[in-house]
Amino acid sequence: MSDGNAGLAGGLCAVVPVKAFDAAKSRLAEALPLAARPGLASAMLEDVLAALAAAAVLRPERLVAIRVVTSEPGAAAIAARHGAVVEPEAAPPAGGQGPEAGLNAAVDGAARRLAAQGTEGMLVLPADLPCITAAEIVGLIDAHGAGTPGRSPAVTLAPARAGGGTNALLASPPALLPAAYGPGSLARHSASASARGVRPRIHGSRGIALDIDTPDDLAALAGMQPGPCTARLLAGEPALAADPVPDAEAARRAEAQAAAQEQAAAAKERLGALWSMLRTAVPGSGRS
Ligand SMILES: Nc1nc2c(ncn2[C@@H]2O[C@H](COP(=O)(O)OP(=O)(O)OP(=O)(O)O)[C@@H](O)[C@H]2O)c(=O)[nH]1
Ligand SMILES: O=C(O)[C@H](O)COP(=O)(O)O
């Protein structure tokens, strides 16, 4: 992976915007006291960056750098553990619109810098996706397509499970679209791509779809497999000592394991559907 600016031209740079930990996750106020929210925000960031670092090992020629755009001092140590570079965020424009003004300004600033450096594309992921896996990131990057010099513009979007949000935004070139986060942003990002003559690819992915905004999202974590830092936090265990940046073999094993789990879940779903079809088609075939 690039150590910052060098060698970006041929690939994608991941950008993770991070709000100050002590202001983050305010919509969880009903479920989590203020004192618990910075810990959750930093654990989820740790899991997102670990998944990105592992994906960079699996697709070294495509995912060439990871940047964390933030004014949060505590993000530096976390970023460093995963080979990510911190970029200070620009202040949002005065009178910027809505609570997402800071997020949109941070992403647009990162996109402009990447465009100026000749980077092929940008992958924006929020820091609140505790279930994201390296295999899912690889799936997203592969769906976006191979990078070729002077490739045509492309946009790939991964939806949030709720609220019409955008949980992953891949744009080639990086500043193709202005960031338009906020409720219903998936439709805005899609329309913005179409207006530029680019048909957006919509790439659904189960772990990426769960961003933790509300108490309902926290409850949804119960049926999912969060990354190790978030899992330990939710189990009330002390934080994990950071895993080192994964080697290629460990990343491949994790990818194979995640793919096997996904296949097993899909097979179970197909069997369930087949069983209920049979029960409908052949009355009295059910055991109940
Ligand atoms: N750099 C930067 N990142 C932001 C800003 N606002 C939100 N983010 C990040 O954008 C992603 C999505 O954020 P949200 O879920 O909208 O905001 P949040 O602070 O995590 O949660 P709420 O306080 O409940 O809105 C997360 O990674 C946030 O850390 C901002 O002003 N600057
Ligand atoms: O547009 C979005 O997806 C959101 O506003 C930003 O993320 P959130 O769903 O975490 O608020």
UniProtKB/TrEMBL annotation:
Domain of life of the source: Bacteria
UniProt pathway: Cofactor biosynthesis; coenzyme F420 biosynthesis
Enzyme Commission number(s) from the entry: 2.7.7.106
Presence of keyword Transferase: yes
InterPro entries: CofC, Nucleotide-diphossugar_trans
Coiled coil segments of this chain: none
Family: Belongs to the CofC family.
Name this polypeptide is given: 3-phospho-D-glycerate guanylyltransferase
Encoding gene per record: cofC
